[in-house]
Specification:
about 230 residues, alpha/beta, Zincin-like, 2 domains, four-stranded mixed beta sheet, 6 helices, globular
């Protein structure tokens, strides 16, 4: 169940969930505010929580909106893209052939004749992310399946803006092509997180204990991933 509300300058989207025990507030990478609450909690109780955290919320929303302006891509020479944990520039090169490569920490798009349109450049970059994410995730899925003694699960790479990854009830893993932006440590955590759902499908205490047992610094990894969410968008 979803509804929209507003507390002073903060507009929020409320999601009521059966398995939710507490009111939680999250500021998404685009600056929007998402609130999760149990079915039994009143709107007034939800808004009291927002009011209690109002100053911090306003500051976080402003920060995310500023990051959005800072990292907005123009799809021109010199744009910076987060890739493998590093900022890598875009180089558009007139050439005798059309090609796209990642060389020396640079995205090099060579083209014949007129420079490609911005949307075409965006598609090319996304496909490069998808290709590299597919290969790198595959390595980590295999590694964690060996460590955790789990069957090798199927996985897909999709163009997801909001989620880094997910695990279906049937055991299929999905990852955002933005996962190519992560360094090896964060990517390893992401894969472990989704594979942990093959053992504990929810986000309960056993799930978190499982993460801690297999990656003691997982909370720092998760925090870092949230901090670069906006920067990773394409």
């Amino acid at each position: 169940m979803k509804s929209i509300g507003k507390v002073q300058a903060v507009t929020y989207t409320l999601f009521r969930q059966r398995n939710c025990k507490n009111v939680t507030i999250r500021v998404l990478s685009d600056g929007s505010v998402r609130v999760s609450a149990p079915l039994s909690v009143s709107i007034r109780s939800v808004e009291r929580v927002i009011e209690k955290n109002y100053g911090k919320l306003v500051a976080t929303v402003a920060k995310q909106q500023e990051l959005g302006r800072l990292y907005a891509q123009t799809w021109e020479n010199g744009d910076q893209f987060l890739f493998w944990g590093k900022l890598c520039p875009l180089s558009l090169i007139p050439s005798i052939e059309d090609s796209a490569d990642y060389e020396n920490d640079t995205f090099k798009i060579r083209f014949i004749g007129d420079k490609p349109e911005k949307e075409e450049i965006r598609k090319i970059i996304k496909e490069m992310y998808r290709s590299y994410a597919q290969a790198r995730i595959g390595v980590h899925v295999f590694r964690w399946s060996e460590i955790l003694s789990l069957p090798l699960p199927p996985f897909k790479v999709r163009d997801s803006r909001k989620r880094w990854g997910s695990c279906s009830a049937k055991g299929t893993l999905s990852f955002s092509l933005r996962a190519a932006a992560l360094d090896e440590g964060d990517l390893s955590y992401l894969v472990l997180h989704e594979m942990a759902h093959l053992v504990h499908f929810d986000h309960g205490k056993k799930f978190h204990a499982f993460l801690s047992e297999n990656m003691p610094d997982w909370k720092a990894r998760q925090k870092h991933m949230f901090s670069i969410q906006r920067q990773s968008e394409l």
